[in-house]
Amino acid sequence: MDFSKIFSGNIPDFATILLGLLIGMAIASLLTVYNRAFMGRLVRRLLKKEAFSEETALTLSRLGYPRNPLIRLALARPTSALRKAVNCTVDKKHLSAEDFKNAGFYIPEEKKEYAESRFTGKNNTVIIAVIGIIILAAAFLLVIKFFPDLTKKYTDIFKE
After folding, report:
1. Per-residue pLDDT tens for 32-63?
2. Could you give the CA distance from residue 103 to residue 59 in angstroms, rounded to a whole number?
3. Can you tell me the distance from the alpha carbon of 160 to that of 158, in angstroms, rounded to the nearest whole number?
4. How far is the C-alpha of 111 from the C-alpha of 86, rounded, in Å?
5. Which of 44, 115, 146, 155 is deepest in the core (most CB within 10 A)?
């Protein structure tokens, strides 16, 4: 595969498309690791401290995240995976910096199962992601090396 032709403006060949898929799947794997490891720490703390209602809700300071910008960003966006699992005592769709000062966070009973399945579990997520990326890279190289006709057929179909 000639990597100099990737951005030439021509129709991408089969190898380039496979490389794009490989990179996309690697990024998705790393985002999964990030969600489980980093964002999951907040969820695990809420579960451990049994913050399941507004009455037992805890502030970010009490959870050990007084000024963490990544946690705040995830909690501020209503569409983030973390916000789908964690409720806030401030009744706003989008949280501002001022809202985080006294806002309490909790996992309601109806979201507890979702939070546990999404953010907790075995700690081997990193290992699985690395192994998955290695397997995908090996499959990419095998297809390019041992099936060059497949690459040529795809390119010929869309060439004209």
Report:
1. 888 888 888 999 999 999 999 999 999 999 99
2. 6
3. 6
4. 8
5. 115
